[in-house]
Design goal:
The protein is mainly β. It contains four helices and 19 strands. It has one domain (3-293). The protein has a seven-stranded mixed β-barrel with strand order 1-13-12-17-15-14-19. Strands 5-11-10-9 form a four-stranded antiparallel β-sheet.
């Protein structure tokens, strides 16, 4: 079988890198990923990104999108309101050591994040934090080793503009957890953008492309690289408690030879047709997508 179909089960946008996501009934695809995905990022005093890897309590920061603003809530904090397109000082920050142009979001936002995330779970102070917004004029591209030379742009994602997972892959993990007497987990731990239903567990590993006809024309997403998994899936998104259980179970059956044996879950994707220039197609929950598999 080289062709099949799948349905969009869920769509997720993560406005602030490493904070909670927003489940969307529909989403706009841009040449940088889903609209507003990883537009903002928290950095330390040196301009280096911070994430749940060091500060799992970031999972408790919940964003919501309004017409002209993003609102952030966290336990014990008043809501922080940020205008979608207002910025302050131009700065340079670092994502995995890569220099990226951005805009600082000001002292109020900096104080809010510093107050809530001011120390690690071990009680170690981490110093002042700043919130920055990606500079849309900056060109940050995915690794061409995996994109076959296609220039796929990103904002503050780890390296690719889209992440695709399947609901059945999660169900397979939960079956293994249940056999060990553990409670089920949900896909928020894996931070996908597009969740598929109607395909077998980890079938996304073998998909070459997803395509559909939008009002603007044909849209094609190419799945290019397995997503290597760091400790973030071990963070409970409801409590920010870290437990290595999920990573330990994945280690048993998800070592990926394409990544030299690293654990993978889900596939990174890029848009190769129908996205960019003036075209901003929509994707909706429940939409049926055409699948082309690798031969």
């Amino acid at each position: 079988m080289t062709h099949a179909q799948a349905s969009v089960e869920q769509l997720w946008v993560y406005p602030v890198k490493s904070c909670a996501g927003i489940s969307m009934p529909s989403a706009t695809l841009t040449d940088l990923g889903l609209l507003h995905d990883r537009c903002w990022m928290v950095v330390d005093a040196q301009g280096d990104m911070v994430s749940q890897r060091d500060l799992p309590q970031m999972a408790l920061i919940e964003p919501s999108l309004r017409t002209s603003e993003v609102r952030l809530r966290a336990p014990g904090m008043l809501a922080l309101h940020l205008a979608l397109y207002e910025v302050q000082e131009a700065v340079q920050v670092h994502v995995w050591g890569q220099a990226v142009s951005a805009f600082d979001m000001g002292d109020v936002a900096a104080q809010w994040f510093s107050d809530f995330l001011g120390q690690t779970p071990q009680g170690k102070a981490i110093g002042p934090l700043r919130l920055v917004r990606f500079d849309p004029d900056h060109v940050r591209t995915s690794d061409r080793q995996w994109t076959a030379g296609v220039s796929a742009k990103n904002q503050f994602s780890d390296g690719f503009p889209y992440l695709v997972c399947s609901q059945s892959s999660l169900e397979g993990l939960n079956q293994r957890l249940a056999k060990q007497g553990h409670a089920a987990v949900d896909l928020r731990r894996f931070r996908p953008n597009i969740v598929l239903s109607g395909i077998p567990a980890h079938d996304e590993d073998h998909i070459l492309s997803l395509s559909w006809q939008s009002d603007e024309g044909l849209v094609v997403l190419k799945l290019v690289k397995p997503c290597p998994r760091c400790p973030m899936p071990n963070v409970d998104p409801d409590t920010a408690v870290v437990n290595p259980l999920v990573g330990d179970v994945l280690q048993i059956y998800r070592q990926d030879q394409r990544l030299a044996g690293a654990v993978s879950f889900g596939m990174n994707a890029i848009a190769t047709e129908g996205v960019g220039t003036e075209m901003e197609p929509q994707l909706r929950v429940g939409q049926v997508l055409d699948i082309q598999y690798h031969l």
